[in-house]
Amino acid sequence: MLPQPVQALDKVRLQLQWVHQAQFAGYYLAQDQGLYKKAGLEVDIRPGGPGIDPLGDLAALRCDFATSWLSQALLLRGRMVPLVHLAQIMQRSALLLVTWADSGIESIQDLDGKRVGLWRKQFALAPRALFHREGISVDEVQQRVTMAPFLARAVDAASAMLYNEYNQLYQAGIDLDQLRIFDFVELGLNFPEDGIYTLEQTWQKRPQVCRRFVRASIEGWRLAFEQPELALKAVMKRVDAAHLASNIAHQRWMLNSMQKLITNRVGTALIGQLAPYDLKFVNEVLVRQGFLAEPADVEGFVAQAWREP
């Protein structure tokens, strides 16, 4: 009997929205443990960072899949960029505003007129919606990759992610009771964050490739939660190769935080599900706060590639 020909793998490119870290551990394990290969895929995982716009790269056909926030995707969808939502990985927002406990800032209203560090693009949507809702005006200061301005008290408040900068402050020697935290979920602005996106043309022409990619990625996340040390090994391999200033203790914190954020409300069985309420809520907020003139057209936007067809 003649040997069966080896079937070529489908090559795809995934653009992440930030540098290599445990925020993306599931994709790394899917790659390292052969889950993508088993799904018939060869995946080029591209790290993000300052100046990299995953959804912009997706629209420009520089990648096949991208991770990004639901708010940014809806904003672009409302501006006629043909994005498709394949899976919602993070169910709970990790976005925080941090202030000093001794600053006298005890409520969001106390930020009126204060210097507040904000990241750009999708990271600024929820804070600006919050300020608009509360009727306050802040002095926006562009926040970059370091918390140094906050530590030096050059800003009155700063943006932070629960899985990252919040723990960085602790690692910098700050006791957490020295901080006052404003959690966007507790403030009624749960903008679901990391999701997997593609373009309409990719979903229409290669639906099975999209489904295989999403399911293998989710399988990678489940494996990361089952075997966290294996996941941390995959993370640190990339962190060290990129000469990033991080350590395994911080990445372990991040992975533990990601598990809570990803499985919130859905457990591990329904990773990938986008709650209709979240979609409707974020769309309405973008209109109400003036980011969109009218709600983004969501007909055909949610593909649910994580489900069996």
Summarize the structure.
By secondary structure, the chain is of the alpha/beta class. It is built from 12 helices and 10 strands.
How would you describe this protein?
With 309 residues, the chain is α/β, with parallel strands linked by helices. The protein has 2 domains: 10-92 and 192-288, 3-Layer(aba) Sandwich (D-Maltodextrin-Binding Protein, domain 2), CATH 3.40.190.10; 95-183, Periplasmic binding protein-like II (D-Maltodextrin-Binding Protein, domain 2, 3-Layer(aba) Sandwich). The protein contains 12 helices and 10 strands. It has helices spanning 25-32, 35-38, 54-59, 70-78, 122-134, 148-151, 165-171, 200-205, 207-226, 228-241, 248-263, 276-288, and strands at 10-15, 41-46, 65-68, 83-88, 95-100, 115-118, 139-142, 157-161, 179-183, 195-199. The strands form 2 sheets. It has a 5-stranded mixed beta sheet, sandwiched between helices. Strands 7-6-8-5-9 form a 5-stranded mixed beta sheet. The radius of gyration is 20 Å and the shape is globular.
Which short descriptors sum up this protein?
10 strands, D-Maltodextrin-Binding Protein, domain 2, 2 domains, 309 residues, 12 helices, 5-stranded mixed sheet, single chain, alpha/beta
Gap between N and C termini: 35 Å
**Rg, alpha carbons:** 20 Å
CATH architecture of the largest domain: 3-Layer(aba) Sandwich
Structural class, from helix and strand content?
A: alpha/beta
Which fold does the CATH topology of the largest domain refer to?
D-Maltodextrin-Binding Protein, domain 2
Q: Tell me the series of helices and strands, N- to C-terminal.
A: EHHEHEHEEEHEHEHEEHHHHH
Q: How would you state the average pLDDT, rounded?
A: 93
What coarse outline follows from CA principal-axis ratios? globular
Strand order in the sheet with the most strands:
2-1-3-10-4
Tally of domains: 2
Helix content: 25-40%
Report the count of strand segments: 10
Largest sheet: 5 strands, mixed
Percent strand equals 15-25%
Q: Count up the helices.
A: 12
Q: Runs with pLDDT <50, length 5+?
A: none
CATH top-level class of the largest domain: Alpha Beta
Q: CATH homologous superfamily of the largest domain, by name?
A: Periplasmic binding protein-like II
